Amino acid sequence: MIVCSCNVLTDHDVRSALNPDGGNARSAGEVHRCLGCSRQCGRCMHTIRKIMNDTGCSAAHAHAHAHVS
Ligand code: FES
User: Fold this and answer.
1) Which residue has a Cα nearest atom 1 of ligand 1?
2) Rounded to whole angstroms, what are the CA distances from 50 to 13, 68, 69?
3) If pLDDT is split at 50, 70 and 90, which confidence band does 9 have?
4) Candidates 1, 2, 6: which one to mutate for ligand 1, based on the most atoms within 8 Å of Cβ?
5) E strands, 1-69, where?
6) CB of 41 closer than 6 A to ligand 1?
7) Would you place residue 67 in the very low, low, confident or very high pLDDT band (cuts 50, 70, 90)?
8) Which of 4, 25, 30, 58 is a plausible cystine mate for 17, CB 3.0–4.6 Å?
9) Domains in the chain, CATH or no CATH each
10) What are the pLDDT digits (tens) for 10-49?
11) Angstrom distances, CA of residue 44 to CA of 6, 13, 60, 64, 69
């Protein structure tokens, strides 16, 4: 699914930017930066935030585990 049509970013791209190994983006603006592009029209920001919320929990868990082990 294309999330950002200006930069042709998919939901997969966004998730990988949120991953600690993929840039560890902590805000919607950082997602663009991590993916090597910049925010343009901003229409995708809402969707990116939603993806961040959806993945936020599991990312935090993965991070916690990485620290424990
Ligand atoms: S759709 Fe993402 S900046 Fe335009």
Assistant:
1) 4
2) 14, 28, 30
3) very high
4) 6
5) 2-4, 9-10
6) yes
7) low
8) 25
9) 2-68 (1.10.10)
10) 999 999 999 988 899 999 999 999 999 999 999 999 999 9
11) 9, 13, 23, 29, 36
